[in-house]
User: Fold this.
Amino acid sequence: MSSPPAPSVPSLTEQGWERTDEREEVRFELPTMRVLAHTLVYEDTSLRARVAAATGVDHTWRFFFATRLGFDPPLPPLTGNASVYGTVRSEARDAFVDDLRGRGVDRIERGRTERARTETRDRVSLTRYRGRYRLETGGDPVDVPVAGLLGVWTHDGDFRLAGGWYPDQSLAATLDGAPETDPNAFRDELLDLVRGTR
Assistant:
């Protein structure tokens, strides 16, 4: 079986985001099936450029990803999604934490999980995360608090995963010369991106 089609995401390019990766892979394997993934990854390159111009520090400050899952062999039509939902959510959480660690985030803590609705009225499970990124600037290292969000849901019979991370306090308070940033606005925008994914 080939990988599923790419997920549909809100238009990001006019908001200063750039797609930095697209991959198709076996996301994980269960005893009776393989879980295939088609993932799109975006970075806020506008923020990256502004911070680099002000401080000389070139770094990814915000990213967003969206994944559509497929199963080989396909799930049974009536009970399939419900039968693997818990496993998919658990595996997605583990993979998200691994991705954050791979990006240099440590002291990761999983926060509360809540329910929300996507723009297509699907029910999404949202899990919040907090951590710390240690930024090496050439002088003393700088600890940047970060927050993340992971959404898991089904749309038109297929699983979707979407989420990302952002600085959890103004970069001006963390990095000398950096512009003011608003973590609440970053959080709200990330939530809108997750809810707008199909």
